[in-house]
Write a structure and sequence with these properties.
The chain is mainly β. The radius of gyration is 60 Å and the shape is extended. The relative contact order is 0.05.
């Protein structure tokens, strides 16, 4: 039955369940279950005349009246895509016996003649409004906990979510069988399946279902055959079960009907379940379940649950009457909560370190101790003072509990020492040791250091002197022949721990005589250096001036005089003074310099017009160089050949005019004059052209192109590129009076204008103000479909393509600036508190959306339009309409259908009147059926065969042979879901590679005379590569030439027999015989012999190599 999918229409709202089933809700009063038995008895017999009292018609069945003349109920008409069912309004007590008899019409067409689908009988523990999926599910699949029986007239070889494939033994044949649907998927019980006659002539066939409530055995009789099944495993603990009968047609069709139904059964009691849960839905007390006759009263009650407080109830009412379907009352409780806080306080600072807030149900353990937190603080340097939180933890109580843990910052005291030293050094003037250093006993100081282990902060005590705070006076030692610069070092007092170590130095000097020799630069009058000598009286000076004088003459000095004794002298008591006088040595040289003049003769557009004119004025001067300082003294420059450049007449060049007819004489040329460059420019007699580009939008000039050139010359310019540069920026050309192909320069100036304007784009922006009118009953609930109206405003946004600036027009109302008055629907038996919602004028784009509520106190007629996806069998949407009897529905299906066809659907049928309809006393139900549109395309894939022909040394022996098999399949894409369905791959040539004869090469034999045919090639087969090796035929062995009776014909998927390499012998190539030739045996024997001769030595060689 999966050749299509169908959905069921209900007389209310039809909702698809996640497992594929459907449920009916919001049933009108006329379809609500009526009392069908006396309160004192639950045993019921349904007679044909009472059928509609006990059964509800749904889907396509709802479109056909129950025929009281023949007691016939149509489930599906003889049309495609139909699905109808009848549901029992009460549940069946499965602990009691029941009997169902009647007649079934399965139609007049077999599957092969376009008939489908059959009739299914469903039992399940859910609500009476729940029915199974149509098609292959037979109205049974898609409902959890279900089982049933089906008369199936359409074989489904492939399963779906709601059903498994039918037994293969009944391919194309109708059959009857019990169905296991416990897991929500209808599975045919193959052992129970039996064939039944094909549907014929719309014949009604007797049908009986009997059930034993004690043994749980169900028996079915149809057309003289009987099916028996123990259904205890399906029923389980479910005493009450819903019952329905369903049929469908899908893409095929059959008229399917019930007749003369008699049903004797026991009505199941109603069940009320009371759950006791916390706010998260967890069970906190034992569930209470009660049962009773339908329409008799029930009462549930709260429980007192320790640690919990009742909050509210939801689900069914806490008291009421038992109903056919189970009712669940949920009592929701809030857990009583206790609180505990533990505060950690730093007593050193008085501040709170942290606070632990705990909460939980009264009586529950806090599951908390202070151990870890205290350790984290002691690890950080704290000491515990007190902790009043119980060491073993505590439990939550109704009263808040407060605990305090006191800690203090731990302090560690240590000491610190410091020393101050005094050292006196005794040295000669050259720094060498004169006597041992004096080191005074050191002064020692100490203080306390207190460290906070939490903050790391240190507190220091005052420094205390341990052995005084001063150093005594120290007398310098006496050294013969030397005099100390300090006879004693004075005492030093007031030493503190912060005083630096004291270091003193006493220097001893010899009693001395002195000599100085002064070196004077006579050129500058400056002292060059002074040599100071000292020593004991009468000691030789050990000094001469020779080396120092040489060092100066090496630097360019010349000696003038030297009064220091050439043999040296001795120290005396009196100081001695000597002078050495030197002067700077000098050298002279001559310096040359030239000043150049060049006159360039050029054309205005570039290029040399005549040879440059060059002239030079030469100068010279004397340079005196001081050999000591390297300073140079320059004499005045003097001109060697005059101090001027003569005037120069510019050359005459035909057709050009020089900007200087003569370059004037240049006088007063000095050595400091820069080189002179003069350019004489020759200008062609010129015409001018200008093109102005104007922005007409702003009135401003965008740019101006100035051209000049010789009269009669082509301008070499067009406006095309410049115009394109502006149109690329968003401009649009208005006019261009410059000649398209350019122009020539003339004596008179030429002026042209190109006019452009800003390009504009326009878009429309919309904004809506909505009005909704809600129609509700006085006691709550929707009375009629909301009235929705919209005022649409629009404005034009113009964008300047050059500047990007946007200009906004005023908002305008597209469909008027008011909401028309709306007459409230007339509903028979109800009065609206507003007969008409008045017109609302002056609506602007800034008006807020408007909501109006009209309240009814009377009944109204209803219309529903159900849109069904025939491809999936699911309901796309349901349009519910309501209004007063006789009022026009004001609705057509056109827009909704278009919204689906825009998404890829295709319309199958629409039974809603094209021009709408009016509300009537009875509810009206319409169906719009759509299916998924599809797109079909082809995909190809190939498998290749390659045969390589090589000599035994690996060289190519013949061209490769290549063959290809192409596979193809169709891909059908669902235009709605985008899902792709792939057909099986098919080969264009049967999925085989034909046998291939190996080419014949003179004096060689092939390892394979033929590569055999390969069959069973599939699209998943990897490309195939074969190698045929040619071995040299040993000398002395003759291969007899063979000529086939007739040449072999290549198969339709291979090329001709591969061609061998060219051989030295130009004779025609001998051809091996094809399969079946008369000489086959002789050739095979000969070739086997040759192969043995070739292979044996090769095998022996390989064996030796391995050894």
């Amino acid at each position: 039955m999966n050749k299509k999918s169908s959905a069921l229409l209900t007389m209310g709202t039809l909702t698809l369940l996640a497992d594929g089933g459907v449920v009916l809700t919001n049933l009108p009063d006329s379809f609500k279950i009526q009392r069908v038995y006396a309160a004192t008895s639950r045993d019921i017999t349904v007679y044909p005349k009472d059928f509609l009292t006990y059964f509800q018609r749904n889907g396509s069945a709802a479109g056909f009246d129950y025929d009281l003349a023949t007691y016939t109920q149509t489930l599906t008409p003889d049309l495609g895509n139909q699905a109808g069912n009848v549901t029992l309004k009460t549940k069946v007590d499965m602990s009691q016996n029941f009997t169902f008899t009647g007649q079934i019409n399965l139609g007049n067409k077999s599957q092969q003649n376009g008939g489908a689908d059959g009739v299914g009988f469903l039992f399940h523990p859910g609500d009476t409004s729940v029915v199974g999926a149509p098609g292959g599910a037979a109205g049974i699949g898609g409902v959890n906990g279900a089982f049933g029986f089906k008369l199936d007239t359409y074989y489904n070889g492939v399963g779906e979510t709601s059903f498994t494939p039918d037994p293969s033994a009944f391919s194309g044949k109708p059959f009857g069988a019990f169905v296991d649907g416990l897991n929500g998927q209808a599975k045919t019980i193959s052992a129970s399946a039996k064939g039944i006659p094909q549907p014929s002539n719309n014949n009604f066939v007797d049908f009986t279902m009997s059930y034993n409530g004690t043994t749980k055995v169900m028996s079915i009789t149809y057309g003289g055959q009987t099916w028996t099944q123990n259904v205890s495993s399906f029923i389980g603990t479910n005493q009450a079960m819903s019952f329905s009968i369903a049929a469908s047609t899908g893409a095929q069709m059959n008229l399917q009907q019930l007749r003369n139904v008699n049903f004797t059964y026991t009505v199941a009691q109603g069940t009320v379940i009371a759950n006791y849960v916390d706010e998260q839905g967890n069970t906190i007390a034992q569930q209470e379940t009660t049962s009773g006759d339908i329409d008799t009263p029930y009462v549930t009650s709260q429980k007192t649950i320790p640690g919990y407080t009742f909050k509210a109830s939801n689900g069914a009412a806490t008291s009421g009457n038992y109903a056919a379907n189970d009712q669940t009352v949920n009592y929701v409780y809030t857990r009583n909560q206790g609180s505990i806080d533990v505060t950690y306080i730093d007593q050193t600072t008085g501040q709170t370190l942290s606070k632990k807030d705990l909460s939980g149900g009264t009586g529950d353990s806090s599951n908390y101790t202070t151990t870890d937190t205290i350790k984290s603080y002691t690890d950080a340097g704290y000491e515990l003072v007190s902790d009043n939180y119980p060491s073993g933890g505590t439990v939550f109580t109704d009263t808040a509990q407060h605990y305090v843990v006191n800690l203090k910052q731990k302090l560690v005291v240590s000491s610190e020492q410091k020393q101050v030293n005094e050292t006196i050094q005794y040295v000669y003037e050259d720094g060498s040791k004169a006597a041992d250093d004096y080191n005074a006993p050191p002064l020692n100081f100490t203080r306390s250091v207190t460290t906070n282990q939490v903050t790391g902060e240190k507190t220091y005590g005052d420094w205390q002197a341990q052995n005084g705070d001063s150093f005594g006076e120290v007398v310098s030692p006496t050294i013969k022949g030397e005099t100390a610069d300090q006879l004693k070092i004075d005492a030093i007092s007031g030493i503190t721990a912060n005083s630096a170590d004291i270091q003193k130095k006493v220097v001893y000097k010899r009693n001395q005589g002195t000599i100085d020799v002064t070196y004077i630069d006579e050129t500058t009058g400056q002292v060059l250096t002074k040599k100071d000598l000292s020593g004991g009286t009468d000691d030789p000076s050990n000094y001469t001036t020779a080396d120092d004088i040489k060092s100066y003459t090496d630097k360019g000095y010349e000696l003038v005089s030297d009064d220091y004794p050439s043999g040296g002298t001795v120290f005396t008591d009196e100081p001695q003074h000597y002078v050495v006088k030197l002067k700077h040595g000098l050298t002279e040289s001559t310096d040359k310099k030239a000043v150049n003049q060049v006159i360039h003769y050029v054309y205005e557009g570039g290029g040399e017009a005549a040879t440059d004119h060059n002239a030079t004025v030469d100068f010279s001067r004397t340079i005196t160089t001081d050999r000591v300082t390297n300073d140079k003294t320059y004499g005045d420059w003097t001109a060697d050949n005059g101090d001027s450049f003569a005037s120069v007449t510019s050359p005459v060049i035909d057709g050009y005019t020089a900007d200087q007819l003569k370059v004037s004489e240049m006088t007063g040329i000095t050595a400091d004059t820069e080189d002179i460059s003069v350019t004489v420019t020759y200008t062609r007699n010129q015409g001018t052209i200008d093109i102005t580009y104007i922005d007409q939008t702003t009135g401003q000039t965008l740019s101006k192109k100035d051209l000049s050139g010789g009269t009669g010359d082509d301008s070499g310019y067009t406006t095309a590129d410049t115009i394109k540069s502006y149109t690329d920026k968003g401009y649009e050309l208005i006019s261009d009076d410059y000649p398209e192909d350019g122009t020539k320069f003339a004596d008179d100036p030429q002026h042209y204008i190109v006019r452009l304007k800003h390009g504009l784009t326009e878009v429309t922006e919309n904004k809506t103000v909505n009005q909704v009118i809600h129609y509700v009953y006085e006691g709550g609930g929707e009375a009629a479909t909301d009235h929705n109206a919209t005022v649409v405003f629009s404005q034009t946004i113009t964008t300047d393509k050059v500047t990007g600036e946007k200009t906004y027009s005023d908002w305008t109302a597209d469909n008027g600036d008011s909401f028309a008055s709306v007459t409230s629907p007339v509903i028979d038996g109800y009065t609206a508190d507003q007969l008409k919602v008045s017109e609302m004028t002056g609506i602007t784009v800034d008006t807020e959306d408007i909501s109006v509520t009209v309240t009814y106190t009377r009944n109204q007629g209803t219309i529903d339009v159900t849109y069904i996806d025939e491809t999936t069998g699911k309901i796309l949407t349901t349009k519910d309409l309501s209004g007063g009897t006789g009022d026009d529905s004001g609705y057509t299906t056109a827009d909704t259908i278009k919204s689906y066809t825009d998404k890829g659907y295709e319309l199958i049928s629409d039974d809603y009147p094209e021009d709408g309809t009016k509300f009537a006393d009875d509810p009206q139900h319409y169906i719009v059926r759509l299916k998924h549109g599809t797109v079909v395309e082809t995909e190809n894939k190939s498998v290749n065969e390659v045969i390589h022909y090589v000599y035994d040394n690996g060289d190519k022996a013949a061209d490769n042979y290549k063959a290809t098999i192409v596979f193809s399949r169709t891909i059908t894409t669902d235009k709605v879901t985008g899902e792709k369905t792939y057909s099986d791959w098919t080969a264009d040539n049967g999925g085989r590679f034909a046998a291939v004869l190996s080419p014949i090469i003179k004096d060689y034999i092939a390892s394979q005379l033929k590569v055999d045919e390969m069959t069973g090639i599939t699209v998943d087969t990897a490309d195939i590569e074969r190698i045929v090796v040619y071995h040299k035929v040993p000398a002395g062995i003759i291969v007899p030439p063979v000529h086939p009776d007739k040449p072999s014909q290549p198969s339709n998927n291979q090329s001709k027999i591969p061609t061998a390499k060219a051989v030295k012998d130009s004779k025609p190539t001998d051809v091996l015989p094809s399969t079946g030739d008369s000489q086959k045996s002789q050739i095979v024997l000969t070739l086997l012999g040759i192969m043995a001769v070739i292979i044996s030595p090769l095998a022996l060689l390989l064996r030796r190599r391995k050894q």
